Amino acid sequence: MNLLLLCRAEPLSRWQQPLTQRLQHDRLIVNAAQCAPESIDAVIADSPPQGIWQQFPNLRLIQSLWMGVDRWLNDPSLPAHVPVARMIDPDMVTAMTETVLAHVLHVHLRHDDMRRQQGERHWEEIYNPVAAKRTVGIMGLGSLGTVASRALTNLGFAVSGWSRRPKILDGVRCYAGTEQLAEFLAANEILVCLLPLTRATRGIVNAEFLRRMRPGSVFINLGRGAHVVESDLLQALDHGHLRHAILDVFEHEPLPREHRFWTHPRVSVSPHSASMANPESASDFVAENLRRLRAGQPLLGIVDRAAEY
Q1: Which is catalytic among the residues 22, 224, 227, 243?
Q2: Mean pLDDT of the residues in the chain
Q3: Domains and CATH numbers, the chain
């Protein structure tokens, strides 16, 4: 098969060699100008430009190198008859789980308060409850949220989860749908957002959402920046309703230098680095999906366009 590799957000060199090694029976094309568009069977891409799909009339698969495909689904040129597969990289799941654990433990042990005390040269012992007395909520119980929830319960935290559809997870108190969202928000001291970005979740973290959160709680966003109405979050932080926000994703990236998040004393910023694909393990996933495509078998990670993920 003729496979076109499109890398715009990441260096091409990260992906070309591991994919070439695993796709030795296919032709991997890295320069679209050097091939006839009608000859391309599959496109493998990270952040393709809008409107690109209409030039490839014979596509059989569109394979994302990322888990999130919200930007792709908003492209009117995306062909309805071609399956779109998101990346399911076990190393990405592991990396996200490690990030969730690191941030939750940071908050649970109040390392931010210790850092503040250090800056003030102030010595005061800080007492924390055991993990079983600390409530942590996970928004989004897909492949990432399920594993993260399990890891938190293994550490002893009292974990609850919220999802669009009802889920059952051992050791996790599960909530579902808009009718149970307020109860879920009020139950947790630490809230981690791992939701996919859809029309229903865009702007979900707004003033009303934040008012429903427990006073003094912490919000951790590892999902998408567009989940958050940033002005509403800043107001909740300014007024002290939230103790802290840990943000890895933003409405505009890179985060503008003049944005208040950079300097806000109750905000921690990281550069959209919570979970990045490992080209080695991710290339294995791509190779398996292409093998399935050739064999006429069900593909992995196929996006449900109605659900938008």
Answers
A1: 224
A2: 96
A3: 2-89+277-295 (3.40.50.720), 90-269 (3.40.50.720)
